[in-house]
Amino acid sequence: MTLCLAGGLFANGAQEGSAKKGLKVGMVTDSGTIDDKSFNQGTWEGILKAQENYGIAPKYLKPVGTTEADYLKEIGNLYDAGFKFIVTPGFKFESAIFAAQDKYADAKFVIIDGEPHSADYSEYRINDNVVAIYFSEQESGFVAAVAAALQMKEAEFGFIGGMEIPAVQKFNWGFQQGLKYANENLGTKITLNPENVIYQGTFDDVAGGQQIAAQMYAKGVKVIFTAAGGVGIGAINEAKTRVKAGSDVWVIGVDSDQYNDGIYEGTKSVILTSAMKRVDVVTTEMVAAELEGSFPGGQVLRYDATHNAVGIPQENPNLSEDVQAQVASVFAKLQAGAITVSAEQGDLIK
Known about the structure:
six-stranded parallel beta sheet; single chain; six-stranded mixed beta sheet; 2 domains; 14 strands; Rossmann fold; alpha/beta; 9 helices; disordered N terminus
């Protein structure tokens, strides 16, 4: 069972001979850097893949801050430079896109993990030049939890989130449900104590993430799931330091396959697996849709296990073959609707 997207989300791909082959595709980054090993990077990699596949011209701009005005300034700079297809990753772009969809009516916008609304939340409106995309992060967190629980069998787990926003919360809640499912159905004995569920508050405080991870590991936590961008990189750094010193600790990555970020001593990695949401593939497909004239403007799209848009990587070197087979079976049940993962908070595993 392939647990990540392995092909297009649309029936037809854009053709090399498309009249829009010279399309300029811009991106405005959210908080953090373009190489944050997470959301920004995944979105940008999707744009670069579109460049490779379709010959588009890519460019990204990093705002000086994260206010609506900061985002609108860079959207305007891209538009003035001829970039009229603009991708924005993150809920903090919602009010900026609400304004931009009217101001730049001949441009197309993709907003990921959010949808346009006024600054005071009094009006939600999505014009025909905007597509809003959501993922079922709870399903991704669920599958990663099952995989990690099966591999560890008996251990104490932890969770480090970045900002306490819906997408990060859903990763956490799905993760908790996955651990509970594994304990009740697959013979594992995993604990997740309330004090080991922490939202750091940012997506770019690497040192803060390392400090929290150090505290958890010192208390006996063996596996930390990080849904925290750069904060998660801090946790990965701490895990590598401890493993080199002889400890047996792990990290579960997020958004993209973070195995390479956890590599130490040549080819070994502290990344047990990763809870993926294929932002890169969906971004590429949105560009392809524009090129072929089928841009789904005015729509709110939701991607889940049935689209192969969430899950764990196809290759997981730190999971045994037996564990991967069991996870594949669980994933198939998720796709078939035999397992339902709630997007709401449930009881914590203790």
